[in-house]
Design goal:
Blueprint (H helix, E strand, L loop, with lengths): L1 E6 L6 H17 L3 E6 L34 H7 L12 H7 L2 E4 L4 H4 L2 H8 L9 H8 L1 H11 L6 E4 L6 H7 L4 E5 L8 E2 L4 H10 L7 E5 L3 E9 L2 E2 L3 E5 L6 H5 L4 E4 L6 H18 L4 E9 L4 E7 L9 H8 L4 H14 L5
């Protein structure tokens, strides 16, 4: 197949996306596909007269991608695009996507997980991997997905939306219940998530979270073990337990060596694995997601799982959580990438 792997974009998870995209692109090329990596926002400024020849590029147009300690400078990325257009799709991106048999979405965060890219590809009749635009948008918005969890009887910590201005911060810092979690409704990779230990830290969180796009969500903080469960097709994969080296599983802990230990399969009982697997599948289906997803849980001290959120396009580097879960059931990274492509290609819902 001719496959465009879309990555990058202008999300705060841009760097993670580029590593996902590069890894996926190389795996698909090893599988025999004509796969190329295209940056959603930067696109390709200079292209040959026949765009199809790009699918023969010996390196798949893959960059030397890596994840730095700090999240990327998105303003610098914007300035680096020659045409300085405000369009999300860079030069020739849609042209290349329309030449592909399928687009593998290696995107994370708002660019790719909020449904806008899926909707655009639907309008052009271009097949792509993963869930459709509506399911993706609902999964990305934590407030919407929380409402659906409540309606479906999926246990999730108590929550409410906060609407406030700068003049309300001091009052809220004194009034809000503790312990709590403060998060933007549209963040990812633990960006825009704050776990204040005291009211001074709560005040700082209320100020900082407003710099992220999206509404602000207050969530009851449930203490326990951090778990995540992937879904592939119609089955749940083995749970992973995440053990951060520091107190919080933040952006650095997720992506830097030594930031966390990940145990897969997680050392839990069969009944706990079964319950979390059933809940992950239930949420996947409730939202209308397709092919694959990953749901994050807290397993409290009594052994009860609490669903935090679902990721419609989870990380797909070889060391990401879903590939680790797939390895636990005997599936190599290349086989996982192929399975996602083949399942997505068989869906007759595009155009």
């Amino acid at each position: 197949m001719k496959i465009v792997v879309l990555a990058g974009g202008l999300s705060t998870e841009r760097a993670v996306s580029l590593v996902t995209g590069t890894s996926v692109c190389r795996a698909l090329r090893e599988n025999g596909h004509q796969a190329i990596l295209v940056d959603l926002f930067l696109g390709l400024e200079e292209v040959p007269a026949d765009l199809e020849t790009l699918f023969e590029a010996p390196d798949g147009l893959c960059p030397d991608a890596k994840i730095e300690i700090q999240a990327p400078d998105l303003e610098a990325v914007r300035r680096s695009r020659k045409d300085q257009s405000a369009r999300l799709f860079g030069p020739h991106v849609l042209d290349l996507c329309q030449l592909a048999d399928i687009v593998f979405l290696g995107l994370h965060g708002q660019d790719g997980e909020d449904g806008r890219v899926q909707a655009a590809l639907d309008l052009f009749g271009v097949p792509y991997t993963g869930g459709g635009y509506l399911a993706s948008g609902m999964a990305m918005d934590k407030a919407v997905s929380k409402r659906l969890m409540d309606a479906a009887g999926i246990p999730t910590p108590e929550w409410r939306l906060l609407r406030y201005g700068a003049e309300d911060v001091d009052r809220l810092a004194e009034e809000l219940p503790m312990p709590c979690v403060i998060k933007t409704t549209t963040g990812g990779s633990s960006l825009g998530v704050f776990l204040p230990e005291d009211r001074t830290a709560l005040r700082e969180a209320l100020v900082k979270v407003r710099s992220f796009n999206g509404e602000v969500l207050l969530e009851e903080r449930v203490h326990g073990r951090e778990m995540t469960v992937g879904v592939l097709g119609d089955r749940a994969l083995p749970a992973v337990e995440i053990l951060p080296s520091e107190k919080e599983f933040d952006y650095v802990a997720k992506y830097q060596n030594g930031g966390a230990r990940e145990l897969c399969p997680a050392p839990i009982t069969e009944s706990q694995q079964r319950e979390m697997g059933e809940l992950a599948l239930k949420l996947h289906r409730t939202l209308g997601l397709e092919v694959y997803s990953r749901t994050d849980f807290i397993l409290d001290e009594a052994g009860r799982p609490w669903c935090l959120e679902v990721n419609s396009l989870p990380g797909m580097t070889p060391n990401s959580l879903v590939p680790k879960e797939a390895r636990a059931v005997g599936m190599t990274y290349n086989q996982l990438c192929e399975e996602i492509v083949q399942q997505s290609y068989r869906l007759k819902r595009r155009g």
